[in-house]
Design a protein that fits this description.
This protein is of the alpha+beta class. The chain has one domain: Bacillus phage protein. It is 27% helix and 19% strand. It is built from 3 helices and 6 strands, in the order H-E-E-E-H-E-E-E-H.
């Protein structure tokens, strides 16, 4: 990857982003979800919904998937990707990031857990595609 994207919510570099609600929100946006609110709510509305700002009365709202903590949710992001490799690397330098995900030859991300690494790699791949 040529650049390190910055989170649109907290301005943290992707390489330094913790596994938290903010990273999950960023991944959800990359996956095509539109936000209702992030600050006080964890609800988003799918891009398939016809949301125009009117009250949804509880319909159409779903919690943000916990991509960076739930391996099943994270795998849902990358399942259609043909070039996917998850590797546990030798953390000889004690970086705290023993998991590496490769989504393309130039998209490699490391993190403390598999789900976190997958989420970061997915965002990096989407950002690379959007920038390229």
């Amino acid at each position: 990857m040529s650049t390190d994207p910055t989170c649109p919510h907290c301005q943290t570099l992707l390489s330094e982003h913790e596994a938290n609600r903010c990273l999950n929100a960023w991944a959800a946006e990359c996956a095509g979800w539109r936000f209702v609110a992030l600050g006080c709510s964890t609800s988003i509305v799918s891009n398939r919904q016809q949301w125009r700002g009117e009250p949804l009365r509880g319909r159409g709202l779903v919690p943000i998937p916990r991509y960076s903590a739930d391996i099943a949710a994270a795998m849902g992001l990358v399942s259609p990707n043909r070039h996917f490799r998850l590797t546990q690397i030798n953390d000889a330098f004690n970086t705290g990031e023993p998991w590496q995900v490769e989504l393309a030859p130039q998209i490699v991300q490391c993190a403390p857990t598999p789900a976190h690494a997958i989420t970061k790699a997915y965002i990096a791949a989407k950002q690379e595609k959007d920038d390229g």
